[in-house]
Amino acid sequence: xxxxxxxSRTKMLVMCAVCIALAFxxxxxxxxxxxxxxxxxxxxxxxxxxxxxxxxxxxxVICGVTMGLLNMSTxxxxxxxxxxxxxxxxAFGALGLSGCFRRxxxxxxxxxxxxxxxxxxSVFLSGxxxxxxxxxxxxxxxxxxxxxxxxxxxxxxxxxxSLPAMKHALDAVTKSVVPPAEYAMLSEKNSGSVTxxxxxVTGAVVAAAGGIAFALSSYITRLENLSILQVTSGxxxxxDAPRADRLYRLVERNTEQLLALNTVGVVFLxxxxxxxxxxxxxxx
Length: 284
Description:
CATH architecture of the largest domain: Orthogonal Bundle
Radius of gyration: 21 Å
Shape: globular
Number of domains: 2
Largest sheet: 2 strands, antiparallel
Order of helices and strands: EEHEEHHHHHHHHHH
Number of helices: 11
CATH topology of the largest domain: Arp2/3 complex 21 kDa subunit ARPC3
Strand content: under 5%
CATH class of the largest domain: Mainly Alpha
Structural class: mainly alpha
């Protein structure tokens, strides 16, 4: 089995796929969407920077570019090939540059900020070079527009991952992902060691988060189904264009939310169970 930095290539590919899946799923849940593209999401950028932190900048950039290509396939907003490259593969690939800072003190936080700034520079250039007729004030218009959705998510994520409890949880996951030598280096620079009790609690909390995602998915399904029933009540639905369009949008939104929540649920449950199993095996 081929190895990279003391880790099997297969394991790295699997964990990179997990990070991409989580980032992509969370990116489908828009807390606020800008009119010309871009949105505030619940921490989707973090999981690409986490891949860079775990495996280094090369693998992080690969994850980011893959994430950008996936986003292109679900909601492409562009004016030409230049804007496509800067807004998608280059912008998201820049998030993986977080791996350049993994050996520094507070490397996770510094790497996250650096990766997000890399994405901001890319989309800023796209706005300045290719969206001048749509953004007021050209240079400053591009900066303000892109900072409006990138800065709030960056600040919120940075606060969350800097909380002691979250740092402890991330350290527990890191211990299960990277080789012991790499973990010792990353732990020394970032969080310190993790006790068995902390690993068990972390596994239980992460698994519970996955269960909550499934519960939310079920709740949203019921609400959306009620809305769909209200829209479809009465005859001659598809002769009424506004109602037909509303039905289409309800079904589309429902599908996106279910995909995101179910993906998050599956991944969180898998991570939680893996943590619990690995901890029990170590105790035995």
